[in-house]
């Protein structure tokens, strides 16, 4: 029987490989252990050997070509064997025994496509923020068969900004779940169906998908019938447990079967391969077997026996969005940075006096945000946004405050920050931070910023730079207050200073403009009483 060989994963970080050289050609006889090709990975060029015997019937990736891991690399089988089925979606025997899924085929515009019955509601993936394009089901709080009441929380949906609870607007039984936990889908994809028990769910889902596809304009093609819509309702799938079972003494024709990397590691560690149990295909010895081997190591060659461990985490929608947006900002906006160091003695004294008032407590971050808001009001060029066809100078001041959460970073927005009293700023920032960490912020509370402040001073970070939150033109990075020797009036004294870095988009904010903004900001922070009388 022909054996399909896929592009192997030859390193822990390998995602694709390039065939540097083939040592065999189609029609050549292959013996187990023969070197088939050299594969270039992200780390090295490595020999790749055959685990099977037969004739090389097909080469799927030519020399110099690159393909993703698990792409068809070659087929080995008997001379003259028909392998056409391997190119037309033949089903491996291991999959043939899986529970069959119910497939419903509904020709569009046919009598089989019936209207959705009264009392049955098709729920689509909601658009929970203005920038949301797809969502991920983090958790289902109801399962198929459960009774759902209007207002019940159906699921937690992870958007590009936060994970939010999604409640049902309908009552009935949860008949169908279209997107499983951990799966992502575009906005308006079929998420669930709620209705009375006994509903023909397959027909409802098929009709919903036909209606959804009909709503999307398509190019008219004469004399071509529209394709039927197929809806697959998965059958229950038993849990699978894969166990790597060691196979003792993997010897073929008197030869120990091991990967090239395993052979090299064994030689380096002084390990006799005939004593190693292989857990790879057909008992082949692979890297992990050498790493976990405990016996037969020459004392002079003994290596550390620690176990390599990793935790793989699927990229969340928030993390994907952070990566996409910050990459776009960094590589499209010409960033430059202006660094300053402010004298904080007056701010420390001001805060101490302010907090002596009954039921009043402000932080240095509150002082910075208030000062930023007032400075931006005086410099709309910095409080601006870049678009391809225009520059917008904002005369309202909405300051985004970066808040670290478990999945990444969110930026709730203090609207009209320049007009807020210091205690109000403190209360609102604490509320934002608390609700951000419990995933209770609304999309509206994270929209509309004209400038952003990122403060890592509470973590002891003295100085850093940030990436601009587009389309804004600037972001301020705030470090910790440090006590150190400073020169005042020609004398060295103990002082308190704080470093700040302004990142600017050179398309909208020139160097002199950014410097003038920082001068105004210095005046407010080094003499905070002016913020109360301005």
Question: Which terms would index this structure?
Answer:
534 residues, alpha+beta, OB fold (Dihydrolipoamide Acetyltransferase, E2P), Dihydrolipoamide Transferase, 6-stranded mixed beta sheet, 10 helices, 29% strand
Given as residue ranges, the uncertain stretches (5+ residues, pLDDT < 50) are 88-112, 216-232, 234-249, 296-301
The outline comes out as: extended
The number of helical runs is 10
Cα-atom radius of gyration: 32 Å
What CATH first level of the largest domain would be assigned? Alpha Beta
Strand content: 25-35%
The pLDDT mean sits at 82
- Per the CATH scheme, the topology name of the largest domain is Chloramphenicol Acetyltransferase
Counted beta strands: 30
* Straight-line N-to-C gap: 85 Å
**What would you call the structural class?**
alpha+beta
CATH architecture of the largest domain: 2-Layer Sandwich
* Tally of structural domains: 4
Helix content: 10-25%
| Widest sheet: strand ordering | 21-30-29-28-24-27
- In the CATH hierarchy, what is the superfamily of the largest domain? Chloramphenicol acetyltransferase-like domain
Largest sheet: 6 strands, mixed
């Amino acid at each position: 029987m022909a054996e399909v060989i896929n592009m192997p994963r030859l390193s822990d970080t390998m995602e694709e490989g390039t065939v540097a050289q083939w040592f065999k050609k189609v029609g050549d006889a292959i013996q187990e252990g023969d070197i088939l090709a050299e594969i270039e990975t992200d780390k090295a060029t490595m020999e790749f050997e055959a685990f099977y015997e037969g004739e090389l019937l097909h080469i799927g990736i030519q020399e110099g070509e690159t393909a993703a891991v698990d792409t068809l690399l070659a087929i080995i089988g008997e001379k003259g064997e028909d392998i056409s089925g391997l190119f037309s979606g033949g089903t491996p025997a291991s999959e043939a025994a899986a529970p069959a899924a119910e497939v419903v085929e509904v020709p569009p515009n046919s009598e089989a496509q019936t209207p959705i019955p009264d009392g049955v509601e098709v729920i689509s993936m909601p658009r929970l923020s203005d920038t949301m394009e797809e969502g991920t089901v983090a958790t289902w709080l109801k399962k198929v068969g459960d009774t759902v009441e209007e207002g019940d929380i159906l699921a937690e949906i992870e958007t590009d900004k936060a994970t939010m609870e999604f409640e049902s607007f309908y009552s009935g039984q949860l008949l169908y779940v279209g997107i499983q936990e951990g799966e992502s889908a575009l906005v308006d994809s079929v998420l669930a169906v709620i209705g009375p028990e006994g509903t023909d769910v397959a027909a409802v889902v098929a009709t919903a998908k036909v209606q959804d596809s009909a709503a999307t304009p398509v190019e008219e093609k004469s004399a071509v019938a529209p394709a039927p819509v197929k809806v697959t309702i998965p059958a229950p799938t038993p849990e699978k447990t894969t166990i790597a079972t060691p196979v003792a003494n993997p010897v073929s024709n008197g030869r120990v079967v091991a990967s090239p990397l395993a052979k090299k590691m064994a030689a380096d560690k002084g390990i006799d391969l005939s004593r190693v149990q292989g857990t790879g295909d057909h008992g082949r010895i692979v890297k992990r077997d050498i790493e976990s081997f405990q016996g037969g190591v020459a004392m002079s060659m003994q290596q550390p026996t620690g176990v390599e461990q990793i935790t793989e985490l699927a990229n969340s929608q928030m993390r994907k969005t952070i990566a996409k947006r910050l990459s776009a900002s960094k590589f499209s906006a010409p960033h430059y940075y202006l660094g300053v160091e402010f004298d904080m003695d007056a701010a420390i004294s001001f805060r101490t006096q302010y907090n002596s008032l009954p039921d009043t407590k402000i932080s240095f971050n509150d002082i910075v945000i208030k000062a930023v808001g007032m400075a931006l009001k005086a410099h709309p060029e910095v409080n601006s946004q870049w678009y391809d066809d225009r520059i917008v100078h904002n005369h309202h001041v909405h300051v985004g405050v970066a808040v670290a959460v478990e999945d990444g970073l969110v930026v709730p927005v203090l609207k009209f920050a320049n007009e807020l009293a210091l205690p109000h700023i403190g209360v609102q920032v604490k509320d934002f931070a608390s609700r951000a960490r419990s995933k209770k912020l609304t999309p509206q509370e994270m929209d509309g910023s004209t400038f952003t402040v990122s403060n890592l001073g509470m973590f002891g970070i003295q100085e850093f730079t940030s990436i601009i939150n587009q389309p804004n033109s600037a972001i301020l990075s705030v470090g910790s207050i440090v006590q150190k020797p400073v020169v005042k009036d020609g004398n060295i004294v103990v002082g308190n200073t704080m470093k700040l870095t302004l990142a600017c988009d050179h398309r909208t904010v020139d160097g002199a403009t950014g410097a003038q903004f920082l001068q105004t900001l210095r005046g407010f922070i080094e003499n905070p009483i002016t913020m109360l009388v301005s």
